[in-house]
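We include the entry.

. . .
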Amino acid sequence: MHVLVIGRGFGASVMAPAYEALGFKVTLVSSRDTEAIQQACAGPFDLVSIHSPPFQHHAHVLIALAAGRPVLCDKPFGRNEDEARAMRDAAQKAGVLHFLNFEFRCQPAWAKAHELIVQRAIGDLIHVNWLNYGSGFRGRPHGWLYEAESAGGWMGAYGSHVIDGLRYFFGKEIDDCGGIVRTETQLRPNQAGEQVRSTAEDAFSCWFTMQGGGTASVDTGYSAPVSLPSAIHLLGSDAALSISGESEVILYRPGQAPEVFDLTPKPGESRFPAPVLWLEKVAEALQTGQQIVPNFNDGLAVNRAIAIVREKALKQ
């Protein structure tokens, strides 16, 4: 199969190698070259994989759909809920397969925790406590990631994965949410060395309630002085799970020793297998014509929750 990858950043560095590992033929095109994208989408591609910045998603998705191509789009799904809905509706009208790049669902630790929840190893999932702090934004120069008007910010970059993760683990939609969003690095140098004020958040502490019951608290940021071990605690009615980092799940039962599931990649395996595992499912869907999740409906649901957070949260 032949995939057109739009975007020479994440698309070239992560997605293109993942496609190639599965035997796809990959053609790359810059997200800045609209004419080249239009010409390329007219070609005989089995899939258009869009990894441009979110402020370009709407235009690029509509170009691909107008050419009748199945589309995989990265997150956050456009700049806002309105753009997400327009892209979802256009995909449904075009009658083509559509996929949303929430590849974290395929992280072995996430997949194992989800499997245990479905098996009712912890009874009913009641509450999720999510902690993740990194330093990846610290010291980086100004760019669209730090501009609210360009759909930058940690809420879109990571919070979209968190919200999709809550929907994945609970099997329910977000009912309500709020909290605090913070910009901990206020100024960043641009290419000319001038200090530019960041208008997008790089940290947030939020609460969520789920339709039909269930709550979550999330504390995360990406401009911390140092990176800290991440942890996702999933509290059930009968037991609890803990996802530690990317490769360990621990099942805690009353009166029993913890059961540890070590999912560390074996020698020779990719340290970050989620994109390849996700694209394996996409490849199968393309071959069978079967629509799978996560797709544009999931992208819209996540953007709807992000909109609620941004409307209701205090800003620091």
